[in-house]
Amino acid sequence: MPALTDDARAKVNLTLRVVGRRVDGYHDLESVVAFCDCADRLTLEPGPELSLTTAGPRARECGEASDNLVLKAARLLGERVAGLRQGAFRLEKVLPVAAGIGGGSADAAAALRLLARANNLTLDDPRVAESAQLTGADVPVCLSSRACVMTGVGETLLPLALPEMPCLLVNPCIPVATRDVFAALGLRPGELRVGAADVIRAPAWPDGDRSLDRWIGQLSAAGNDLEAPARSIQPAIGAVLAALQDADGVRLARMSGSGATCFAIFDTDIAAQRAAQIIQRAHPPWWVHAGVLS
Question: How far apart are CA 152 and CA 142, in angstroms?
Answer without folding.
Answer: 15
